[in-house]
Amino acid sequence: MYSAKEAAEITGLSTATLRYYEREKLLPKIARSSSKYRQYTDEDIEWIKMIQCMRMANIPIQSIKRYVSLLIQGGTTLEQRYIMVQEHMEDIKSQIANLQSALVLTQSKLAFYENLLKEPMHQNITYVEEWKMFNHGGRL
Amino acid sequence: MYSAKEAAEITGLSTATLRYYEREKLLPKIARSSSKYRQYTDEDIEWIKMIQCMRMANIPIQSIKRYVSLLIQGGTTLEQRYIMVQEHMEDIKSQIANLQSALVLTQSKLAFYENLLKEPMHQNITYVEEWKMFNHGGRL
DNA sequence: ATAAACTATGAAGCACACTTCAAGTCAATA
DNA sequence: TATTGACTTGAAGTGTGCTTCATAGTTTAT
User: Fold this and answer.
1) Which residues pair with B31 in a beta bridge?
2) Between the CA of residue A37 and those of A1, A5, B136, what are the distances in Å?
3) From the alpha carbon of B51, which nucleotide's C1' atom is closest?
4) A99 to chain B nearest CA, in Å?
5) Which residue among B99, B122, B128 sits closest to A95, beta carbon to beta carbon?
């Protein structure tokens, strides 16, 4: 059993965020001590980590909420959850693909700057010329 | 020269967004026709594409603004821009790394669901058991 | 010439994911 | 016992990145 503060320390989230997640039904109801204090179990902590994983993948709160709701409903919702997780996976893959093409462009820009810094003539290059050269190299 | 609507069609952004970017100084001042209508040049379009690349990498508007400001100032800011682009690159890499670990977890969850769907016993599995099994497999 | 379509502006509004505040309750310690 | 620190709640506030609105001027097609 962990206090609010401990749960926050373990997960790296703020107590406010943990309450927010609970309000938004991303977490199951957290048990309370005599007189209203939250008592996070190890299972709650694991659940929070699962949510952190989903948030890390930029899955919106509302989607997580829908998923969690199916999870709590249990076994008969398995196929729906399967479909949701598949969609999440596709979404993550496309995010990675986007970032990777941005990375390629950024790296070529960096290489361009490196060359420019080696040149004693780099003072003469205007921004117009710069992005012309840059855009010449790589394209979205 | 492109009208607002044409620029929007070419870039896939809305005219409102293009005006917003201009207001926020992500774009240089766009030329105007006799009587106030914007006239986007090919260079403007390329500039917009550069910004789209940065946005795709989740670079905040304020960072783009700083970068663009250096770019407009020109040659003497080259080293600062070099540093910024390096930072952007590191940021993109860490975003990719995060997404990739989320992807691995998501894939193992998917595999778990696939096994469960093959089992005729899957009705009996509660959500508590499910995430126990899931969390047993992979960890953040 | 008149309606439809396009463009302009500043200001307000919105969705998202939290964060902070106000006002009070509970627990431990000096 | 009094104060300090942690915890509670609902409500309001914040930052980001747009989007929509109200109002008005311009261009084009019929």
Assistant:
1) B39
2) 11, 11, 29
3) D17
4) 6
5) B99
